[in-house]
Amino acid sequence: MIDLKKLEVWFITGSQDLYGEETLKQVAEHSQQIARSFNGASQIPVQVIFKPTVKSSEEIYHIIQEANTAKSCIGIIAWMHTFSPAKMWIGGLKIMQKPLLHLHTQFNRDIPWDSIDMDFMNLNQSAHGDREFGFMVSRMRLNRKVVVGHWQDPEVLEQIGGWSRVAAGWNDWQGAKFVRFGDNMRYVAVTEGDKVEAELKFGYAVNTYGVGDLVKVINAISDAEIDKLTVEYEEKYAVVASLRKGGAQYGSLREAAKIELGLQAFLQDGNYKGFTDTFEDLHGMVQLPGIAAQRLMGKGYGFAGEGDWKTAALVRAMKVMGSGLKGGNAFMEDYTYHFDPANPMVLGSHMLEVDESLADGKAKCEIHPLGIGGKADPVRLVFNVAGGPALNASVVDMGNRFRLIVNTVEAVTPEHDLPKLPVARVLWKPYPDMKTGCAAWILAGGAHHTSYSQNLTAINMEDFADMAGLEYVLIDKDTLLRQLKNELKWSDAYYKMKG
Ligand code: MN
């Protein structure tokens, strides 16, 4: 879907001229060796580009200026092999626009007890060199990721890899375009928000097109293209008999295929990374896009229903972050509860549009009436979703800032068939437990729409919040309601003071 190998993070080592040529030569060799090893590490999905050691304010300013404008550069890893006086970093850090990872490592893993001398000490100083750098970044109040440990430590590689995935998601938002067909679902609050502020803070633009503009593209789709796609449906899914060629509702399947092809053409033409629609505005459309939205999400587009552009954009960024990993990232909605005290859980779903990338096994392709919207019966994919660790994430507009709320959950493999529920669905248990998790979510103002992830971690989401300047509220195993309530109050005070 999204090739992360095309993206680069730049590995920049800081030093100073004081050490003399011999030491600096060794610094450069070590940095090259580390960058090479990062490039070979399966945990790191992007390219790591070695950059020559920086030793002065001018060199630092110049390399960061270059990183800012390099299109493929999505982030900077900085490491102070030796001492690098941090006043030299002020100018560069002041203009830095790419996410920063401060790697607090050291070339040698162990202290060479028998041979260690002052030359060795002179060369291997990151234990204090990185502290000087860290002070400056803290003094400037810049968000960054700090990773500590030897550069061959698998945990360090895992952390760098995770951060670079998050940086790819952030990079994907910069200059991204999302389209809204129709406006927000009438009277709904949480899906609203300040699109101007979002573009300023997050770098993506959201603009609206009338459904009629989309209908025009849908109606221009040829019969031959529709034939081809319906064959693909029949090959890929268990299509019910009535929708198959010769079946009584084959026309509805063709209509669904036409909507999918039209939507895809519209998105491709406008270079959009995602879209929203609303069942309240379907003028000229025969069905609400069901299978179309499900399959386009499967292809990597962001989507959310009812005009919810914040969730559509979040789904897209999380798809980029999880690219190449097992499992999916998907538009989700907390739908209904199982309040059995012995086994409480949430059933997540949507009217239709559950992302195909979550399907556990072959999906069924069915058609059923939709009790809302007053249009023809929509075609949809119906499937179950596998159990395992997952999380729900939601971005809300608090008026003076955006907040990212994350709840870690444990998905449960469905035990019941649900023969009369013709939509895709997921079952999960929120952490720390059903009652606390749901109460915490509601207190934090989390939306009913989320981006559901099977392959990203709470740490990934925290890194994303840091990059995006989002307030971050995590609900997990350690959440206590009274602490969370204080956290929300203190956070409110912080954002008021910050202005
Ligand atoms: Mn909804």
Description:
Strands 11-12-17-16-15-18 form a six-stranded antiparallel barrel. A five-stranded parallel β-sheet has the order 2-1-3-4-5, with helices on both faces. It contains 15 helices and 19 strands. The chain has 499 residues and is an alpha/beta fold. The protein has helices spanning 21-40, 57-69, 90-95, 118-123, 126-139, 154-173, 195-202, 211-219, 223-236, 250-270, 291-298, 309-321, 434-443, 458-468, 481-498, and strands at residues 8-14, 47-54, 73-80, 100-104, 145-148, 177-181, 205-209, 238-239, 274-277, 302-305, 329-338, 345-349, 364-367, 379-382, 388-397, 402-412, 425-430, 449-453, 471-475. It is elongated and about 85 Å long. The model has no long low-confidence stretch (mean pLDDT 96). The relative contact order is 0.10. α10 (250-270) packs across α11. It is 38% helix and 22% strand.
